[in-house]
Amino acid sequence: MVSNRRFDENEYDYQYSGGYARPRPNKRRRKNFIGKLAALLLALIILLAGGAALLYFSVVNPGGTGFYEGVYIDDAAMANLTPEQAFAMIDSKVKERAANFSVTLSYGGETWRVTGTDIGLTADVAGVVNQAYQVGRVGDAFKRFQDIRSLSAQPARFYTTMFYNEYQIDYLVSQIKSEIDVAAVNAERIEDPNRTPPYYFKGESAGLSLDAAALTAEINELAQTLTPGHITLAPERVEPTVRQADLQNEFVRISRARTPISKSSTAERTANVAKGCEIWNGMTIAPGQRVSFNKVVGPRTIENGWNQALEIVSGEYRLDYGGGICQVSSTLYYAAVEAGLTIIERSAHGLPINYMDPGKDATVYYTGKSGYRVIDLVFENNTGSTVQIIAKVEKYDGNPHCIFEFYGRPDVNGYAYYLETQTLSTIPVPEEKKIIADVNGEYTVYIGETRTVPGSRGYEVNSYRVVKRGAVEIERTLIATDIYAATSTREYHGVTPRE
Fold it and tell me: What region, left, alpha or beta, does residue 4 occupy, with left being phi > 0 and alpha being psi -120 to 50 degrees?
């Protein structure tokens, strides 16, 4: 059967197979088709590229360098602003916020103002602007397109974070603290040997201390929220640790000894007594300190400014430099015992003395020359607190007296100390009178002049350290048993011829 179909012989070739003809595509027509398809694809690519370019210039990058619509910094719209314009705007606002922040501090009529500038209040404006500017500029065109399109529904908001210099706050607070703080002043006892008693008190006063840590934390809290505020400062009262009332109770006169200077005492002897008192006056003795009379006073020599006067040496009266110093040592001894100090070394005179009862005296002897027996008075401060000595020659009832006073803390147990004596026996005055040539002119001067000095009885005496609390005797301790020789009546004869 033959088909009626017409065909273009240029379109098909025929192959004969099995008694019929099968058309075969023409090679020339196939080439034309491929060419048209390629042209179509090229046109599509050009169209897509043009659309992308149109999208970029119309949506992705309108105007070239501005922020996209929907970008905000600190709630301010950045649309179409350049990064430089955005920085200028935000930086101005940050500076304004810093300038508007301040904390006022006040105390006692004084005020201090801490501003944002003072503490370096600022923000990383450049970093925030740069971060905001990246919206719609990161990724390929399609991602950027999506980011930009989403801004209409969900704007991108960025905020500056304010920060400040915490060390600057610390410094400002320390400066304010230095203006407010006042150190507490303890009461003080000022030594003055020229006074009686030998000191005066300087009273205490309270101080002030500002709590710098708490104030710093309070300013930090306001700075973090940019909340201006006013703080009324309340420095703490600092109490002194030593009060005048305490010192007055702790430093009082704890003993006093007074011995009369005889009316027959020469000016030289009285001067020696005054010199000895002056050496001891104002001396402070620390707890546990041991004191030697001879080390404090030194040798009694003419080179050291001592005068010649009568003194008892080896049981006899004789002229020597420093005569009268034993009245100083005896009065000191009496006061030291009744102040509660411990006596380490003490010797009694060989003869009775006229200014003190037997058993209460203390003789000393020290010339500084070798070969002479040294007799010393040594005591130790075992009261547990510092004591101060006042020594002076002062008139009492119109007559000069040697006076020693000890000042210190009252005994912690409430004890009082006494030096008491007990006469064991009395030694009568020898019947034989002594005739003495007064070669030193102690009592007489010229030949034919005589003076009789009555003899004195001797004694055997016990001395005790007695401790009492009120009227109750707590302890009685034997210090020494002393024997004072009796002295004969002495008749002095002048030896100097009259002119």
Answer: alpha
